[in-house]
Design brief:
Eight copies of one chain form a homooctamer. Chain A is α/β, with parallel strands linked by helices and 205 residues long. Chain A folds into two domains: 9-63; 76-204, 3-Layer(aba) Sandwich (Rossmann fold). Chain A has helices at 16-28, 40-49, 86-98, 114-119, 121-124, 140-147, 168-175, 190-201; strands spanning 9-10, 34-36, 54-56, 61-63, 76-80, 103-106, 129-134, 152-156, 182-184. The first copy, chain A, has a five-stranded parallel sheet, with helices on both faces. Chain A has a four-stranded mixed sheet with strand order 1-2-4-3, sandwiched between helices. In chain A, strand 1, helix 1 (16-28) and strand 2 form a beta-alpha-beta unit. The two termini of chain A are 18 Å apart. The interface between F and H is small, with 8 and 14 residues. The complex binds adenosine monophosphate (4 copies) and magnesium ion (8 copies). One adenosine monophosphate sits between chains G (7-10, 36-37, 189, 191-192) and E (82, 84, 112).
């Protein structure tokens, strides 16, 4: 709480039993909690015990209480090239929702079809922060960063094959981007992108 | 200018003649300009023609007009563990100065001597943004990020040997930090850290 | 035996039949034996024939005879940040137990929540040796090594994703730590950490 | 000659004496010859003996006879983002000239200033083939490939630092580009790009 | 369509439902469409709804309408060493067919049995373009490029083990080939090879 | 001092002036100090001002006061295969001397001439701790660890070429050694080996 | 046959149907044939049709006719440290048998228990050629090469975890061995080791 | 001498003084000695003291006594593509000469000009052993191994740029060659190739 938010649980390497134990404590304290990287099978098991909980199977996000509509202003735009990156975009989206921050996902504005992106530029200018998600060669944040002045949080994804190297090429391309002032988070780390947007939005207060 | 700032020149692979030609144009237009990564010998050659220009040999930053004292509020804290990372810290500092943003360098608060860092926590809380510079294992942003709530821009440096792998270990460690919401820029990229701080500070306006 | 201990069997690439054959020999000689990296399914098959044997499914440690309580002094502290690294911590713990050395696991003292670690410092000072287990960016041994004077055996784990690179980032970070005199073993090698602690404790004799 | 062109000499690891010996043979046979990767000092030594020869110090290209103006149609456009990649662009340009193919270099149309590129699209459409040279994150061929239908030969360069990894990031990004039908040559290989353009232009005959 | 061809769908990370939705749109518009990298199970599910569609399980290529015999001239030769690379060769073949380009696969002309290749040289000379597919050490494009003058598109495959490194060794070998003017696409990227052949064949028009 | 020793200065990236400034402070306080990784030229410059100081050009170790003969018992044996690794062996040796610990270097007991090593086994058994330094394939600690029961601190060196990969192969070989309980420090890190020996020798007190 | 042996089939990426087709041809011609890397399930399917064929499930070696006892002199010794490397040792052994060369496997002479190896030295001296198989740190060929004068073919295996890097560490260690004149084959390549032994034994004729 | 040859000195990291000391001992004992990897400057210094010694500046080979013409039969053929690899070819050649083995260098038979190689096949068949030296993509041993039955020792060299990766690509390509029974030594290791040829030639005795 020292940092303005509660600890979030990393679900990937925890057993169903362990997670159920942790959830029981939060229910007792009547608190909400966020768990990331909950695999499909484990998510379904948690839902069986916690019927009103929320689980998104694309991203593996689990929350005891879904938080909808609590921020009408859409502060963060989450941009991605297509439906392949939806899991990562959702991880960012639901984490922001959990933190009480309005967000919106804008799909299908990739580099291969540049005109679709150029047509949306004025829309994109309205967000405080842009989270730009991209796999393959990861060129999208570079292009967006050359066109728009907001803080840009680039998220490389592991989509692609061969020299995509499970996201390492996109990651390194984003870090060495010739656009100015882009910051980067770990491969597939939609959660981290959301948390850094949260830190930045403190500046508005 | 579309992005609120002028283009900056990457000096590393440009010859003295080419740089002098470019500088002449800026002098004619009576504009200031920032050149990064100017090697020592080249910087001295530029200074010979432009006596009132500014050159920092630690970082290779060159500006036609030094901009001092134009922002009394120190908005950005640049933290590093010691004097080995001074070049990168200075690159961030002078870029911020050029952009008209007040900044301060805080040295000698490394992870090996944790108590010196803990003693400074309340001071560090006063900056809007923290740029955290670290080589070797790059643990400093993780520790700072666990203690303080501001936006944190982590800059890995190429200081170290062997498994430090010219900054790659610090880079990867920062990206996979278990502290929440840390963003990262390229190895030794003090310039990029400053530019992303500039983007974030727009949120205060 | 030349080294003061019996050979330990590496179970990972041995078939159930081969392992049963080896165990039969030890039973005949009425000797205890340690097998490491026994996969869950194989461990259950071995237990069926050897009812009084011990098998820990988190770590894959198998022993013909469980050795409990044979050293009341807790000489080795095994520190980890959370429950994700429990398999590696257990591998160290049960190997030490097998060697007749008292040990204790201290969980939940990670870098992200530094104050929990600082609160335990005096407790941790009482162990002869500290085995520090960490995944993700692997910063924990650096922080512990800056605070405490004992021999520190750092064990990187393969917990994490993306730039965690299956433990390689934690490994390289630990090796290039700016804390003094930390030694390191292979990724996920709780067994090796225990064996090096055993060698070190010979110095007390 | 089997392939429609003479052998070209790789100059990088040959001594001045060895190169002078080879050149003497070509002079005797009254033939032109192309040598690539001739370092500055070696190029000057060769020019001393062969006054009418051609040497470009940016690219290290050496030819016994300069071939100018032998193809008035500009078939190949060589695009790059700026002056840092000039050596590689020149290597492609002079090799094409040597092969009797008209070419043109178009600088300063990088991804960071996308509008300059968009303004030139119709010009670029007039070339038979586009050689696209880029360092740092190497996004330029992806953007060009999404806008124009010609054969695109992408040349990654070693310009950049840190995660640019001496051109490996740009190379891998170009290979995994989400634009369709881009082909790639080795890092800094302007020569290879020109030779593959030569092979492709045979299709016009 | 800006580029003379319709968008192609990357099937690997799309669910059956999503793909069925997309296909329904194409059926409505009475258009053909190409989907790449459709896994075996997903391909069978799509065929159930679209009985007259085409699916090749070796390559994962799916088309709403099979296009056979629409170009009697065989413009592109697809060479491979053996049956291990058949999936990649087929991906190139069917993509070319979809684009209306005649192609032919020539198997069993590997480097290990050089005489079989030498016996076929005059046949191979008749194609406009050669796509050369090879795994293991990837030497085949080098040998073919030293013997024949056409444009050569080298496709490394992930066939092999150990130092074959899932195709990275073949890729890097092809890029650094001492044969002149070879261009390269991503590992296993038969699709990209076909698309670049398509771009090159525009030169014949 | 919290850890029982003073801070040591990393000299590699500090200028002569900066180092002279630091030394002046220690002279004033009449304290000894250790600086590591002082390059040859810088070491000579420091000696000019501090005539009674100690500088070893093989290892780059600098001390204000040489400490000789302060521990007559030779507790640590530093083993290496030959004279190529002398710089790393000396770094360990002089650091131990500075810490007041008796040490001895044993050269020419490499793996290629195994009998010389076997002949020395009983001698080597007398040390409390063995620091084993090796480049190339780094097999020496594995062999020593299979023969002797003491704590073994393996130090990989960057001696070798090609697949020695500047010490990375030796490092990884030592970490994955099939001898039990070997611990490892960073490449060329004689200093770290000495500091970890210091921590271990506390166990004797 | 040009090389004195028939082509061998690489089974790993061929379907059961394809393999059955190939086998039928060999049966028709009444010829023996060797297939390598046949997975367990596929091997059993082949045996069903070819009852008198030979299949070794450890190595995946399949032969139409088992060839036993055809060379009474044991020319090649295949050394390994333990039962983990049995698959690779068998691949070498059965390939040699197929080629009509007598061979023998000597297990349990690893580096960790050096004395067992030293006890066997005179036995090992009787073979013409030594194939030395080792995983983990791969030190065994270095030790054997320092003790014995025969041709040594080192085979790294993918046994181990973490820094063993699937055999890459053993491979690189063997290549940079400080023992003289060791040659190396690909990771897990027992087949290649046997074939190179075959080439060498031609020298005896 | 246990292995039939004297120890050879690795000169790369030894000072002139140290080498002169070692040479003096050999002169005293009236013995010849081989030193490898002697840098140009150091070689000239040694020659000043030892006028009748032999030094080859291409390879850095130094011998107290040149051994010419001591084996009239040319047993080992050393093949390379061109003059760039001459240093490595010479290292093999002079080492063989020192060991009393007749050898011959055959240059200019690279893969790019395959017909020159095919014209020489019958000549090459006369050697007992072939050492095949190649940089760039390293395809030469694969082609030679598919045509000739002798033992083949492949030596990758560090010649090339970009994806040649200082010889790593050639190394990995040779190890994963689809030609049968090729063995490989370290990058640029002409010395090791010669020593393994020496071991193999023992089989002829
Ligand atoms: N998806 C994620 N990626 C990175 N870090 C995470 C993720 N989810 C949770 N965390 C962090 O991991 C830590 C929790 O780990 P644990 O105690 O093992 O649940 C907290 O510091 C979280 O902020
Ligand atoms: N988990 C482990 N990690 C590393 N080495 C091990 C492990 N378990 C056993 N060993 C070592 O591996 C060797 C036994 O291998 P094996 O003969 O194949 O059972 C012995 O030297 C053991 O000390
Ligand atoms: N096998 C493939 N390899 C590389 N790119 C592909 C492949 N198949 C389709 N694409 C490209 O990927 C993009 C489609 O991605 P999506 O919108 O996710 O279906 C288009 O630009 C296609 O041209
Ligand atoms: N296990 C193996 N490792 C490496 N090469 C092999 C192996 N088995 C067969 N080969 C070689 O691979 C080629 C056969 O490939 P294929 O035509 O796909 O069956 C021949 O040149 C064989 O000598
Ligand atoms: Mg897309
Ligand atoms: Mg410091
Ligand atoms: Mg945790
Ligand atoms: Mg530019
Ligand atoms: Mg084949
Ligand atoms: Mg030595
Ligand atoms: Mg073993
Ligand atoms: Mg050549």
């Amino acid at each position: 709480q020292r940092l303005g938010f509660d600890e979030v649980i990393y679900g990937e390497s925890k057993s169903i039993n362990l997670l159920l134990g942790l959830l029981a404590e939060y229910v007792n304290r009547n608190q909400n909690v966020l768990i990331t990287r909950v695999q499909h099978k484990k998510g379904k098991a948690l839902l069986k015990k916690h019927h009103s909980a929320f689980f998104d199977k694309e991203s593996g996000i689990f929350m005891l209480k879904p938080l909808e509509g609590n921020d009408e202003v859409k502060r963060v735009g989450i941009i991605s090239a297509g439906s392949s990156d939806i899991g990562v975009a959702n991880e960012a989206y639901y984490t922001l929702t959990y933190m009480g921050i309005g967000a919106e996902i804008i799909q299908d504005v990739g580099v291969a079809g540049l005109h679709r992106l150029l047509d949306r530029i004025e829309d994109l200018r309205t967000y405080d922060i842009l989270i730009v998600v991209a796999g393959f060669e990861g060129a999208l944040p570079t292009v967006v960063g050359g066109l728009l002045p907001q803080p840009i949080i680039a998220v490389p994804t592991s989509v692609g094959y061969g020299t995509a190297k499970n996201g390492k090429t996109a990651l390194h391309a984003m870090l060495t981007s010739c656009s100015n002032g882009i910051t980067v988070v770990n491969i597939d780390n939609g959660y981290g992108a959301a948390m850094s947007a949260f830190r930045m939005l403190n500046l508005k207060k």
